[in-house]
């Protein structure tokens, strides 16, 4: 029972991070209607930004996370303006082709620039944990969780309260009507993509204290991120949060009775089952 | 000459060139290997094209069936000494069955959702093959036993027989594709693709149509998995069940050439495989990642020049479509 509670606690903590890295993916899909297969590469870039902020400037990854958001977000703006904008009206196969090519480019540019070695940061709280009665709460997990929840809340407020957020949601619901009321949908696409990849990079930075970064680290997260957004319903931000927690819990609890390699298997099976039974997501409304 | 007979003459001419070409190439050399890979991947993309093009369901998990084919024939060969020809039939049967089973839950999905579900299924197979080491040999991979040169055992020192095998495979798969395209079944597929409700109204069983297409496609690419195994002599789960080396590559080849047309995968493979090799050849000595980076940049460029594929670029699309 104790082991189960501990696994559930760890799962919730990791799930919070999964939520924030996947919100970016779901935002891009919700607003632009394209699935960005290169999303996990922006996570990798965020991890590298945080790594170099630590290696060169001595900054903690949690402090560098906003910088990762800004830098990778700016890169996302450029990618949307220069590349993705041109295939917005092309058939889906062309969009997949482009984002997959982008994945290859980003991954190998990173390999070229940073080399293939595994890098990790050292922080004072890395191996400490809080005691909660019989349970332990790992500090790096807690810090990443707190940063993720804060950024998720900030995005939610932005989408609900600000004019830009409302305009972005309007673009997602009906681009034509949004244009009619004077919203620059092109600008909304740029903004959504920049925020989307920026958030994913932010998530990458906050998980750096308990992970290592290397150019192909994104591969570990691709299917995982898709599982999160599909569980919650593609395009739904609240859904991605729920999906993130579910995936964290599934992963960590299945780890109690399955070997490590098979943890992801459970996840993929859940993923296919949810896709085929409720493609609109567990929380999504039937359309 | 009308358009049809003109095309027959051109196709026959190309075939004669393809048949004679190996005579001028070093049978152990690099060039003949490239051609062999082009034919193999063109055939794989052509089997993808049945689901991806005719049914317009973009699969990103065809590695699942490909890997099943490669492992089935190789394991039968190692454990029981069964000829890869029979292994190929067994693999195709198994691959087709798995494809049919997978299409039960996924056939109602379309567009992005279908792509994601098949992507995840490919990963399921890769994880299983890596974990189930007592059967598959696990992450360490599996070696195909090599004996005497033999057509019955599909084992050759030289690449030349493989050249003809893969060329034959490409012609066969393309023939299946064209036969489906022109048959009543092909029309049902297109009807389901264009408007499923209208297709159902006129009496097309859309579920059966989609499952049958998925089964044929999965069985064909599984059979090609055997050819791949016999050609490379060694493979591991991350290669044959891989997203990047198989699933996405096969889809990219078909998309690049032109989805839903018979010539598309052939043109796509003729461009992509040499492009990969050229990038490798030119840049691999300099720094890790550079060749793949150049390759990726070229792909990005291509999609901007013509998002509908190279067939459209050459203006061939209408001509081939109208047939």
Describe the structure.
In chain A, α6 packs across α8 (185-207) and α10 crosses α11. Chain A has a two-stranded antiparallel sheet. In chain A, 74% of the residues lie in helices and 3% in strands. In chain A, a hairpin with a 2-residue loop joins β1 (129-132) and β2. Chain A is an all-alpha fold. Chain B has 16 helices and 2 strands. Chain B has a two-stranded antiparallel sheet with strand order 1-2. In chain B, α4 (84-106) runs antiparallel to α10 and α12 (243-257) crosses α13 (263-283). Chain B is mainly α. Helices cover 75% and strands 1% of the residues of chain B.
Write the layout of secondary structure elements.
The complex is a heterodimer of chains A (about 290) and B (about 325).
Chain A (H helix, E strand, L loop, with lengths): L1 H31 L6 H19 L3 H22 L9 H23 L14 E4 L2 E4 H23 L1 H11 L1 H6 L4 H23 L11 H14 L4 H21 L2 H18 L10
Chain B lengths: L2 H18 L9 H25 L8 H18 L3 H23 L4 H21 L1 H4 L5 E2 L16 H23 L1 H11 L1 H6 L4 H27 L1 E2 L1 H4 L2 H15 L5 H21 L6 H16 L4 H4 L2 H6 L2
Antiparallel strand pairs in B: 1-2
Helix pairs in contact in B: 2-7, 2-10, 2-12, 2-13, 3-4, 3-5, 3-10, 4-10, 7-8, 7-10, 8-10, 12-13, 13-14
Question: Which key terms come to mind for this protein?
Answer:
heterodimer, A: 287 residues, mainly alpha, two-stranded antiparallel ribbon, 11 helices, globular, B: 323 residues, disordered C terminus
């Amino acid at each position: 029972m104790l082991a189960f509670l501990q696994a559930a606690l760890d799962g919730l903590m990791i799930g919070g991070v999964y939520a924030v890295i996947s919100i970016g993916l779901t935002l891009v899909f919700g607003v632009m209607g394209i699935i960005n297969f290169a999303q996990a590469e922006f996570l990798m870039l965020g991890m590298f930004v945080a790594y170099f902020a630590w290696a060169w400037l001595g900054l903690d990854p949690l402090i560098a996370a906003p910088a990762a958001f800004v830098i990778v977000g700016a890169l996302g703006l450029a990618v949307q303006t220069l590349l993705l904008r041109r295939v917005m009206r092309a058939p889906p196969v062309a969009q997949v082709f482009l984002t997959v090519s982008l994945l290859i480019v980003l991954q190998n540019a990173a390999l070229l620039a940073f080399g293939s070695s595994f890098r990790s940061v050292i922080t004072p709280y890395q191996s400490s944990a809080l005691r909660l009665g019989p349970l332990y709460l790992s500090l790096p997990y807690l810090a990443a969780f707190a940063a993720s929840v804060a950024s998720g809340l900030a995005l939610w407020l932005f989408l609900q309260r600000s004019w830009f957020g409302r305009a972005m949601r309007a673009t997602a619901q009906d681009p034509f009507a949004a244009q009619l009321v004077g919203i620059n949908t092109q600008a909304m696409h740029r903004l959504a993509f920049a925020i989307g990849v920026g958030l994913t990079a932010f998530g990458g930075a906050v998980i750096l204290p308990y992970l290592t970064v290397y150019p192909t680290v994104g591969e570990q997260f691709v299917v995982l991120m898709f599982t999160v957004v599909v569980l919650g319903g593609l395009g739904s931000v609240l859904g991605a949060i729920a999906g993130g927690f579910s995936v964290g819990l599934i992963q960590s609890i299945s780890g109690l009775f399955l070997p490590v390699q098979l943890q992801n298997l459970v996840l993929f099976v859940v993923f296919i089952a949810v896709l085929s039974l409720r493609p609109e997501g567990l929380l999504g409304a039937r359309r | 000459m009308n358009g049809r007979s003109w095309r027959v003459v051109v196709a026959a001419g190309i075939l004669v060139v393809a048949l004679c070409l190996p005579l001028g190439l070093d049978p152990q050399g690099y060039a003949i290997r490239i051609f062999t890979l082009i034919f193999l991947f063109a055939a794989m993309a052509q089997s993808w094209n049945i689901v991806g093009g005719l049914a317009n369901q973009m699969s990103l998990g065809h590695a699942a069936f490909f890997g099943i084919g490669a492992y089935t024939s190789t394991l039968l060969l190692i454990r029981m000494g069964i000829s890869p020809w029979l292994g190929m039939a067994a693999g195709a049967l198994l691959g087709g069955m798995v494809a049919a089973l997978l299409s039960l839950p996924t056939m109602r999905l379309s567009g992005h959702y279908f792509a994601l579900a098949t992507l995840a299924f490919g990963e399921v197979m890769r994880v299983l093959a890596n974990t189930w080491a007592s059967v598959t040999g696990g992450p360490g991979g599996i070696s195909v036993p090599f004996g005497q040169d033999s057509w019955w055992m599909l084992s050759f020192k030289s690449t030349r027989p493989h050249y003809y095998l893969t060329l034959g495979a490409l012609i066969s798969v393309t023939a299946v594709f064209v036969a489906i395209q022109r048959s009543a079944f092909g029309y049902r597929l297109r009807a389901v693709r264009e408007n499923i409700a209208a297709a159902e109204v006129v009496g097309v069983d859309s579920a059966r149509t989609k499952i049958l297409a998925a089964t044929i496609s999965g069985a064909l690419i599984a059979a090609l998995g055997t050819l791949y195994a016999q050609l490379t002599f060694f493979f591991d789960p991350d290669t044959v069940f891989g997203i990047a080396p198989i699933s996405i590559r096969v889809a990219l080849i078909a998309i690049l050439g032109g989805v839903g047309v018979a010539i598309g995968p052939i043109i796509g493979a003729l461009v992509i495989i040499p492009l990969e090799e050229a990038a490798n050849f030119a840049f691999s000595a300099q720094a890790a990642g550079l060749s793949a980076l150049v390759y990726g940049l070229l792909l990005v460029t291509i999609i901007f020049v013509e998002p509908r594929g190279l067939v459209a670029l050459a203006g061939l699309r209408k001509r081939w479509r109208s047939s």
